[in-house]
Amino acid sequence: MASATSNGGTTGNAGLADPLLVSRDHGSTKKQVGPKGKYWEAADKVERRAAKESGGEDGRQLLFRTYKVKGTLLHPYRMLIFIRLIAVLLFFVWRIRHNKSDIMWFWTMSVVGDVWFGFSWLLNQLPKFNPIKTIPDLVALRQQYDLPDGTSRLPGIDVFVTTADPIDEPILYTMNCVLSILASDYPIDRCACYLSDDSGALILYEALVETAKFATLWAPFCRKHCIEPRAPESYFEQEAPLYSGREPEEFKNDHRIVHREYDEFKERLDSLSSAIAKRSDVYNSMKTEEKDVKATWMANGTQWPGAWIDTTENHRKGNHAGIVKVVLDHPIRGHNLGSQASIHNDLNFTNIDVRIPMLVYVSRGKNPSYDHNKKAGALNAQLRVSALLSNAQFIINFDCDHYINNSQALRAAVCFMLDQREGDNTAFVQFPQRFDNVDPSDRYGNHNRVFFDGTMLALNGLQGPSYLGTGCMFRRIALYGIDPPQWRQANIAIEGTRFGSSIPFLDSVSKAINQERSTIPPPLSDQFVAEMEKVASASHDKQTGWGKGVGYIYDIATEDIVTGFRIHGQGWRSMYCTMERDAFCGIAPINLTERLHQIVRWSGGSLEMFFSRNNPLIGGHRIHTLQRVSYLNMTVYPVTSLFILLYALSPVMWLIPDELYIQRPFTRYVVYLLVIILMIHIIGWLEIKWAGVTWLDYWRNEQFFMIGSTSAYPTAVLHMVVNLLTKKGIHFRVTSKQTAADTNDKFADLYDMRWVPMLIPTLVVLVANVGAIGVAMGKTIVYMGVWTTAQKTHAAMGLLFNVWIMVLLYPFALAIMGRWAKRPVILVVLLPVAFVIVGLVYVAVHILFASFVPI
Ligand SMILES: O=c1ccn([C@@H]2O[C@H](COP(=O)(O)OP(=O)(O)O[C@H]3O[C@H](CO)[C@@H](O)[C@H](O)[C@H]3O)[C@@H](O)[C@H]2O)c(=O)[nH]1
Ligand SMILES: [Mn+2]
C-alpha cells in the first residue's frame, strides 16, 4: 500500500502519497498542495528543507505537514473582518447619536444587545485570523519507527473507552468500539485497551470476554485483508467494500466465515442477559444461605462484586466496590483463548500476527457518600489503573458510541507527538468528531462542520484545538498536571496529597516523568490486582489534586473544554489531526429533544466554567492571548441567546394597533442592520471555503443556533443562575443512543420529538412570527389605500425580518410535524394557509370593530 514517494521531503507532496491521506485527484498533473488543495498551500517549506539538509535537528524527520490558507483567500477574509469591525463601530455610534425610539426601554435593551452581538462576534472572529491545517506523514513515521525485522520503536498507547450503562448505551456499539481498537494498526504489544463501566454490570464484563474471543478472529482477518473500518458492524453494513488487501483469492471465503462468526457473536451478546440471570438463579438456589439476598454470579462460580440484577446495598449501580479484571493479559504472556482454535483452522493466518492487545475491564468503586464526577471520574480511574499496568506514555479516549474508522489513526496521532518541532510540547492531539448515523440533510446540524473544520483549524494556528471529549490522544504527564519541558522544574515533588496515596502509583508517575518505559506490565498477583482496585475505589481521589490540577477536571457538566484549558494554561500546545479517511466515527442524537439536552449540557458546562476558577479571563497563566479570547468565547456564548430571544419575539409588535419603531429613522437602521448581517455571511462564505465545508453545513449551523438560542441556551443560562444560587450542578444526562421503535426506518428518531419545557420559547417565537406575518398581511389589506410609501417600505422590511426568523426555525417546524415531515412540502402549504387565516381574522375583526365602533 505504501507507495513510491515514501522518501519524505523530495517533493512538496511526498508522504501524502499514502492512499489513506491523499485527495481523490492525487496523481493528476496539477501541483498538489494539500488534501483540499485549492485554498491551502504548504507552510513548512523552509523547515522541511532545513530538516532534510541536517538530516533532522536531532536525527528525527518531520512527521507532519503544515498548510496555511492561500493569500488570495486569506487576505480578503482578514480585510473583510476588519471592514466589518469598522462598520459595526460606526453603527453603534450612529445608534447612540440617534437615540430616538417609540419605546425607549426596548431601544436601550437593543443597544445593549447589539453591543453584546458585536463583542461576541469579535470573540468568535479574532482567533480565526490564521487557520493552519496539519496532516500526519504516516510514511515518514513508518520509515523511522518500524524496524525491518517487523518490530517497532513506536511508543505505548493506553486506549480508554467509557460506558455508563448497558441499556442506554447498547453493548453492541461499545463492543464494536473495543473491536476497532483491538484490530487497529498499531504494534500489538504497545497498545492496551481499558473499558470503564460506570454501571458495574456483569453483562458488560462478560460481553468483553466474548469480544476478546471474537477479536482473535476479527483482528487477524482485518490485518490480512486490510479491512476498513475495523468495527465489524459498520464494516458489514457497507455495500461491497473495495478490496485493498493482498489475498484477494482467499478473501471471499474468509469474509463469509468471519461474517457468520460475527452474527453468532452478536447472538451470544444478546443471550448474555438471560444466561446470567439463569446461572444466578441456579447458584442462588444452591449456595445462598440468606433467602432474600439474590446475588449475581459469574461463570466461575463466584459472586460478582459489582451491581446485581436484584440490587442490594453495596451491589447496585452507584454503590459497589471497585473492580479491575484483566480480560486479556499482555501478549507477551500469551492468551488463553483455545475455543477459537477450530475456527482458525478454516482460515489461513500464516504470516499474520494473530495476537491481540491487552484488554482490561474497569468499574470504579462507587459510594453514595462521594461524588463520582461523571465521565471525568471514570477517566481518572482508568488513568490510575492503567498507570499501574501498562503506564503508556500516551492515552487516547473514546466514548463508547465512537469507533476507530481509519486503522492508521493511532499512528497519525503519534506523528504529532514525536515530531522534532513541537512534539515534546504537544500535550494532546484532537481529531474532528464525525458521525455516521446522521440523516442526509443533517436537519439538526449534528455534523457541526463549521466548528470541527472551521473553528478548530483556526485554533490549530494558535495554541491548538480545545479538547473535545472523544478521539483525543494525550501525553500522560500532561494529564498529570506536569509542565511542558521548557517550564519544567528539575525535581518535581510527587506527593500523595496531590496524586493519591498509592505508592505503586506514585512510582509510576515518576517513571512516566523520567520516561522510564517498560511496556510489559507486572504479573497479576492478587496483591497487585488489589492495588489496582484500590486506586479505582470511590474514595481514592478525594482530598487530592485529582479533578483539580491532576487528571480530567471535576465539578462541571462538561469535563472536556475545561481539561483542555487547564493544560493549555500550563503552556502546552495541542494539535488538530485531520485525515482523508476520517479517523473516528460515532453516533449523534438525531432526535431534537435529545440533541437539545446535549446542547444544554455543553452550554451549561461552558457557563459553569466561566464561573469557576478556570475562568478564561483569570485562569491559565501561560495561555496565548488569542487562545484565551477563544476560550472566553466558548464560555460566554450562551448569553447571546437572551438577546436573540428578545429580537426573535419583537415581531409581536405587529399585533399592536399603533405603529411602533424601535429606532428612528427606521429605514437607515434597517439598512445598517442588513449591511452588517450580510457582511457576517460574506465572511462566513470565505470561511467555509477554507474550511472546506458546504453551504448546507453553514446554513444548518445558523438554523441550529437560532433553535438553540430560543431553547437550550436560555435553559443553560437559567441552570447557571440556579446553580449560582443553590450550588447544584447540571446533571450529566447520558445522550440516548437507543433508536425509536421503527426498525425499518433508519432515521425514525428524527420524527420522534418529545415535548419538554425548554421547547416552549421556540414554539412561542414560531407562533408569534406566524401570527405577525398574518396580521401584517391583514393590515396591508385594510390600510392599502391609506399607508404612505414610507409605511409600506417599513412594513416590507419588518416582514423580511419575520421571514428570516421563520426560515431559521424551519427545522423546528419540521420537528413539530413529526412523521408528516417526511413530506416537507406539507409545511410549504400549511404555513401560507396559516398566514391567510390569521390575515382574514384580522380583517374580519377590523371590519367588526369599524362597524360597531365608528372611528
Ligand atoms: O457518568 C458518566 C457519564 C457519561 N459517561 C460516558 O461519557 C461519554 C459521553 O457521553 P454521551 O452521553 O455519549 O455524551 P455526548 O453528548 O454524545 O458526548 C459529547 O459531550 C461530552 C461532554 O459533555 C464529551 O465528554 C463527549 O466526548 C462528547 O462526545 C459516554 O461514553 C458515556 O459512557 C461515563 O462514563 N460516566
Ligand atoms: Mn455520544
Automatic annotation (TrEMBL):
SUPFAM superfamilies reported in the protein's UniProt record: Nucleotide-diphospho-sugar transferases (SSF53448)
Keywords, sorted A to Z: Cell wall biogenesis/degradation, Glycosyltransferase, Golgi apparatus, Membrane, Transferase, Transmembrane, Transmembrane helix
Residues the record lists as binding UDP-alpha-D-glucose: 169, 198, 374
GO-annotated molecular function: cellulose synthase (UDP-forming) activity
Active site: 198, 560
GO BP term, example: cellulose biosynthetic process
Membrane topology summary: Multi-pass membrane protein
InterPro entries noted in UniProt: Cellulose_synth, Nucleotide-diphossugar_trans
Binding residues for Mn(2+): 375, 399
Region Disordered: start-end pairs: 1-37
Subcellular location: Golgi apparatus membrane
Ranges annotated as spanning the membrane: 77-96, 103-123, 636-657, 669-692, 704-725, 755-777, 797-818, 825-849
Cellular component terms (Gene Ontology): Golgi membrane; plasma membrane
Pfam family, one: Cellulose_synt
Superkingdom to which the source organism belongs: Eukaryota
Segments forming a coiled coil: none
Signal sequence region: none
PANTHER family: X-BOX TRANSCRIPTION FACTOR-RELATED
Protein name: Uncharacterized protein
Lineage: Eukaryota, Viridiplantae, Streptophyta, Embryophyta, Tracheophyta
Designated gene of the protein: LOC100823740
